[in-house]
Write a structure and sequence with these properties.
The protein is mostly helical. It has helices at residues 36-55, 63-72, 75-90, 94-115, 118-129, 138-154, 160-190, 205-217, 230-239, 243-254, 266-282, 288-294, 301-332, 341-356, 360-363, 369-384, 469-486, 502-516, 519-525, 537-546, 551-570, 579-590, 606-609, 620-638, 644-655, 663-671, 678-683, 687-692; strands at 193-194, 225-226, 387-391, 402-407, 413-422, 432-437, 449-456. The strands form 2 sheets. A 5-stranded mixed sheet has the order 3-4-5-7-6. It has a two-stranded antiparallel sheet with strand order 1-2. Helix 16 (369-384) crosses helix 19.
Length: 693
Amino acid sequence: MSEPRQITDSETNPLLKAWVTPFATPPFDEIEPEHFLPAFEQAFADHSAEIAAITSDPAAVDFANTITALERSGKLLSKVASVFYDLVSAHSNPAILEIDKEVSLRMARHWNPIMMNAVLFGRIAQLHENRAKLDLSPEQLRLLERTYTRFHRAGAGLSDEAKTRMAEINERLAQLGTSFSHHLLGDEQDWVMELGEADRQGLPESFVASAKAAAEERGMEGKAIVTLSRSSVEQFLKSSARRDLREKAYKAFTARGDNGNANDNNGTIVEVLKLREESAKLLGYPTFAAYRLEDSMAKTPDAVRSLLERVWKPARARALADRDDMQALIAEEGGNFKLAPWDWRFYAEKLRLQRANFDDSAIKPYLSLDNMIAAAFDCATRLFGVTFDERKDVPVWHPDVRVWEMKGPDGKHKALFYGDYFARPSKRSGAWMTSLRDQQKLDGEVAPLVLNICNFAKGAGGEPSLLSPDDARTLFHEFGHGLHGMLSNVTYPSLSGTSVFTDFVELPSQLYEHWQERPEVLQKFARHYQTGEPLPDGLLQRFLAARKFNQGFATVEFVSSALIDLEFHTQPAAAAQDVRAFERRELEKIGMPEEIALRHRPTQFGHIFTGDHYAAGYYSYMWSEVMDADAFGAFEEAGDIFDPAVAKRLHDDIYSSGGSLDPEAAYEAFRGRPPEPDALLRRRGLLDDAKAA
């Protein structure tokens, strides 16, 4: 492949000149791959000069010339990197992915000497040691503590020899994380399963329509395909009457990154674990998990294991009981085969229909994407007084991307919200929130640019996209993260929005899911996409009654993944030399039902291997769920899910405070007490199983 032409002129490179777009948003329609490397070069140089100015400042060390100056540094780098990584994840191409390999290494080489700069750390440590005498505001004190912790944990206090080795490790981990991500995307792009007329037995019309749209997206007009997008595969496994095709789709989905081809991730995992273990020991920790969890709400691997095991036992018991009922259902139908993992979702739907007279396909026509977006916005309006107006004048990276302006209760501009909802080959799988610009007030009000990226199936031929209940929940989940970014009200960029502990960051998102499944919301927004008729009351009641169905399965597939993550990072790295054998051994140890797969098998576990944000931290979703289940109880106790007084506390203590408060203090300020652990089991319908266990 020829090298992309590089454009260095700040007058012509759109990444280097002032953005004269609405709200100074990135001019995506002008940005080409060849703009990035020169822009990164300039950004690295600018940032290095800013750091040098701080370390060489002859004036006495103070908060302003060290911590505040650090907060002001790196603006161009943040600007360029946010645009670049949005495209890498949401709309890549071969040129972008090639640049990503170089940028990931250059990024590590840029940050290593900053985070391990002895002079800079000396200034920070001096301020930290004397913090009680500095007359700092609570937010400034929190920023100083977090800055000190960040540099200390990066190795700034190590010997020169250890720093050199840590820098080498960081560089290699950056390369490996990029490789893992590219391999996963490669396997996902390379596989499709075409569905002929005879292959569509049991599939609802909405699925076939989205399968046709997916084919069209890949230049296969007139055909229908299953892709390795989770929303495609899981819906196919629920609905397809073709057991042979379910097996084929399931095996392809669970084998991503584990096919012995150029995209195989097994070797990558082995090396990542060895390097993480070495880095933890350089910093004085026995394991990477011990290092990672010290700076979290959980604090220790034992605390994480205790939570996961408390949930595992009742969930496994429930799943095994459901398995036996599904096996009986197979026998009733005359089947003489043993329930397999590719059968679970299909027979779970039949069992749910039998028990609760409900299946997902009945409600999907009432869950159009546009209506669920409107529902998410309306809940935010009723809770926080914010409003949303669609903007057509903001440049976007793909024609499917939509943009809304969020205004505060005072009618003033507060944020832009970008929604990129549909699966496509250029987008990595999953759903996530990120930002192009974070809120801050250090040098005047800076309004955030917040993104939600999803992988929903697109409707074909002008038909709307119809969501499953899981999809609708995902939309609310990511919008909860989005609100955390958009409602942020802090001074310093390092404390903005979602800059909180990983096991706290899922609280605003998972809490927001509760509103999606409330009758008050569904009665207003769940309307048939063809007739506009509201969701019939009988169907609504059956849906609400069926919500806790199959929770044994859902909990088992999650908790097993979280336990595998914990074991990868607590056991010696040598124990995982053979990744498949390690996986088998750990699943046998916990008694994993063979009919259920991990939600994320190791070779596709992007949460923990494309970077270290969730490494030894996948448990965070469940840690946060203890809080979110308990937190929603505050609204239920008030007798109004939009109670103004509770909503104000939620806004002030959780959504707008970013990282400016200690998370435990933030939660207790909102709720008036620590979270009640049984709330999680109660929400999942597993409390009786837990008591029996």
